[in-house]
């Protein structure tokens, strides 16, 4: 799962963390195991594992619109922000084998919730698949783990893109899921002022936004 901020500046970045927290709480309630692979301001990447997990999160991919008075706002001005969610399946073994010559790998220092330790060593791994331009960044503390997970995620993304490119009826890749961060083609609107969430794909609504934000995403099912 990847969540990325779009339009809306600071509040969009704040909502990335809030929405990720919703998904983690929901995952815990279902007995799923979640693990953060990358965390930075306005961008989260994580794996969520468990039986049937794909079906539970299948409807989350797309653009999420947030309408509220931001927690940082001092003049009670309403704001509309956007975040994008991409949910991609990850198998333990992917069929696509990436060639070393097609990979661009670098080890970098990136600050994170890990504190000072995360900044002292070049443990973060940035990996790019040159033929497709797809890339991934993992910033955990263990460099070997980061490289292994980056390779696994990148292989899955490349495999998905190749499959989608060959299927004219389903030509939506990771870039389409995350989009450009704009307000077009939104799948869901969170209106905090009215306490309501509207799913524009299923047409379902809930007036219990507080329960949703506590991790019960099934109030919208």
What this model shows, in words?
Helices cover 29% and strands 28% of the residues. The longest helix has 23 residues, at 143-165. It starts with a strand and ends in an 8-residue tail after the last helix. It has six helices and eleven strands. The chain has 221 residues and is of the alpha+beta class. The chain folds into two domains: 2-87 and 185-220, Alpha-Beta Plaits, CATH 3.30.70.1660; 100-165, Double Stranded RNA Binding Domain. Strands 2-3-1-5-4-9-10-11 form an eight-stranded mixed beta sheet. A three-stranded antiparallel beta sheet has the order 6-7-8, covered by helices on one side. A hairpin with a 5-residue loop joins β10 and β11.
Label this structure with key terms.
29% helix; Alpha-Beta Plaits; 221 residues; eight-stranded mixed β-sheet; three-stranded antiparallel β-sheet; 6 helices; 2 domains; alpha+beta; Double Stranded RNA Binding Domain
Give the structure's gist in a few sentences:
With 221 residues, this protein is of the alpha+beta class. It has 6 helices and 11 strands. It has helices at 9-29, 53-57, 116-120, 143-165, 174-178, 209-213, and strands at residues 2-5, 33-40, 43-49, 62-68, 79-86, 103-108, 124-129, 135-138, 186-191, 196-199, 205-206.
Draw up the topology in text.
Elements: E1 2-5, H1 9-29, E2 33-40, E3 43-49, H2 53-57, E4 62-68, E5 79-86, E6 103-108, H3 116-120, E7 124-129, E8 135-138, H4 143-165, H5 174-178, E9 186-191, E10 196-199, E11 205-206, H6 209-213
Parallel strand pairs: 4-9
Antiparallel strand pairs: 1-3, 1-5, 2-3, 4-5, 6-7, 7-8, 9-10, 10-11
């Amino acid at each position: 799962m990847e969540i990325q901020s779009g339009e809306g500046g600071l509040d969009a970045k704040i909502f990335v963390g809030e929405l990720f927290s919703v998904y983690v709480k929901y995952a815990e309630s279902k007995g799923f195991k979640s693990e953060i692979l990358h965390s930075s301001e306005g961008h989260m990447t994580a794996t969520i594992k468990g039986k049937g997990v794909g079906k539970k999160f299948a409807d989350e991919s797309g653009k999420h619109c947030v309408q509220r008075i931001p927690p940082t706002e001092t003049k009670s001005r309403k704001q509309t922000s956007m975040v994008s969610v991409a949910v991609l399946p990850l198998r333990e073994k992917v069929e696509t084998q990436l060639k070393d010559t097609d990979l661009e790998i670098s080890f970098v220092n990136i600050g994170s919730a890990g504190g000072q330790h995360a900044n002292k060593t070049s443990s973060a791994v940035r990996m790019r698949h040159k033929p497709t331009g797809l890339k991934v960044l993992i910033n955990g503390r263990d460099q070997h783990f980061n490289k292994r997970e980056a390779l696994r995620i990148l292989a899955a993304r490349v495999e998905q893109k190749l499959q989608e490119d060959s299927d004219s009826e389903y030509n939506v890749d990771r870039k389409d899921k995350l989009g450009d961060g704009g307000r077009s083609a939104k799948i869901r609107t969170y209106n905090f002022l009215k306490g309501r969430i509207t799913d524009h794909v299923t047409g379902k609504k809930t007036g219990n936004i507080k329960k949703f934000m506590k991790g019960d995403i099934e109030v919208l099912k």
